[in-house]
Design goal:
homodimer; about 40% helix; alpha/beta; Isopropylmalate Dehydrogenase; 11 strands; 2 domains
């Protein structure tokens, strides 16, 4: 572990690339959120956009902007000059400690899995997602990397989730499997068999099945599910929150003057509500289980989101999140 | 189709049975929401609790209270004197047009499938759930009856969903399949193959994949998914809505006097919000695809919920919802 964390940033990925990405990197450096950044896809001619006193903390790595949202995941393995390939290759070679990209998720996962490579003993790397909830954050895994899973794969997912829950400050995190009922007889054969695997592993504090209605309850740490269900769940949470807030707005705009005054008086509370629902407050989405720290920033990331993703990547390097996984194998 | 719809009500099912069930039936009759009710599990000694002028609209059918929440689904097929078995048997024999129960869901589905029996040409009956959303209700199917499905089964689900969307007043309802992306290449082999089946069926207005974040959007009519995902989605919506409203409460109670005044002024809007999220406003949950109208009332139903379930069952009889399905086969 180097004293300084070397964080790579994909300058091409994301809807607002490259400027938001560059600005996010500058902000993170200015505020000492990271030690140094490698701008992958960056040309030396960008140097004049960077404050002089930060020059020694930024490195430029040439790369092609050859992956877009239509690139099929495995295609990236042939695009060896793409920023996504190069970022992962540098992790593999030990030239980077972490890599942040807001680019094509599928391509990023493929490059993570096949270029950086899996941790030995982990058979399914997965997207690990922080969620808000009562008494603090919790972790959902898999957020969409593996649409289909075999029961034994839940062991990998559980350990990735535990490592991330510890990263978020949880002690001895409990692991639940998402299911359509909490009784042991409920659900598909896959989740029932998965439960048996988790029960038997003494590195996993297995706590039984959990239903979707209890995701935000107190005392929930890690929720494990397949990537198809997990991705659908995440997007449903997003859709439900958006719908509720838009209904609230509609009620206010249909309401009388007192309602409108009421909404004005409640403005700060409503802002607080929005903030408490924003999972980005807990940092980016990690692709855990590979032998490097890969952070997926949202495709629509602005400079603040990029800066935040760089910060959590840096923190994960310092907290040795990969060692936390290896300790459980 | 008889002029009077004969609705059966399970007097035993539900947390507040039998009194809430009985009160719900009385309320529905008093307000002419239904024509007549068969109280399954009712004893003649209940007659003194019923207003005299309703006596001719209520029939008592003896049954045993032998199914509880621990009864395994298929066990009910041996419990031939249970209210759930008898209600379905009466539908099978043409003695009832619809049956409403707040009892054990699994047992109810098993009795519906094997006692009442499937509609010929439907290979998977499913739970059809009305959801709120922009510009009115939409339908999610399967809400949890079939945890695992083959691609061809999506045809049954789509047709059940279409029939229910028509019941809710939609013209030529569109059908979406829930998936983790809208591109045709996304998702599991099952949903991709299911899409091909729906495309080919000219009775289905197939509109492509939909993501969880768009469930509440305008122009969404029918969303088809397997019962494992569907049930998880429904419970996640419930959990998210509950969490958001409780966070809002917390923000208000942590807020100052102005926030509290604001909340008071917004009281009606917040009530309106709560109501717009309550899917019960659109009626009960139907188990469609069997040769009878089976309505599942929520386990925690109060008399109002029971009355509402009886009302929608009655309406489904009058609207000939089963014929709507048969027309598509």
């Amino acid at each position: 572990m180097p004293e300084k964390a070397r964080i790579g940033l994909d300058l091409f990925g994301g809807d607002n690339a490259p400027m938001s990405n560059l600005e996010g990197a500058i902000f993170a450096l200015k505020n000492n959120l990271i030690d140094e950044v490698h701008l992958i896809g960056g040309e030396e001619n960008l140097r004049n956009k960077i404050p002089e006193n930060l020059h020694n903390k930024i490195k430029f790595i040439k790369a092609e902007n050859s992956v877009d949202n239509h690139t099929k995941p495995t295609e990236v393995l042939k695009l060896k000059n793409s920023s996504i390939y190069i970022g992962n290759e540098m992790m593999k070679k030990g030239q980077l400690d972490a890599f942040v990209s807001a680019g094509n998720t599928g391509a990023l996962l493929a490059a993570g899995t096949f270029v950086t490579g899996r941790i030995e003993g982990i058979d399914r790397p997965a997207l690990v997602i922080p969620l808000p909830g009562k008494n603090g954050p919790r972790v959902l895994v898999d957020g969409g990397a593996n649409a289909e899973l075999k029961p034994a794969h839940y062991i990998s997912l559980a350990k990735e989730g535990i490592a991330f829950a510890k990263f978020l400050g949880k002690k001895n995190p409990k692991v639940h499997i998402l299911n359509i009922g909490t009784e042991e007889t409920k659900g598909t054969k896959i989740v029932k068999d998965a439960a048996e695997f988790l029960k038997k592993d003494d590195k996993i504090n297995y706590a039984g099945f959990i239903e979707g209605r209890n995701i935000f309850d107190e005392n929930v740490d890690v929720i494990v599910t397949d990537g198809f269900t997990g991705n659908n769940i995440l997007k449903t949470i997003e859709g439900t929150a958006y719908y509720i807030l838009s209904e609230l707005k509609r009620e206010v705009s249909n309401g009388g003057i007192f309602t409108k005054i009421g909404a004005m008086l409640m403005k700060n509370s409503l802002k607080g509500l929005k903030k408490s629902l924003d999972y980005r407050q807990y940092g980016g989405t990690f692709f855990l289980g590979i032998n490097g720290i890969l952070v997926k920033a949202h495709g629509s990331s602005d400079s603040e989101a990029i800066s935040n993703a760089l910060f959590v990547a840096n923190k994960a390097v310092k907290d040795k999140i990969i060692d936390k996984i290896k300790d459980m194998l």
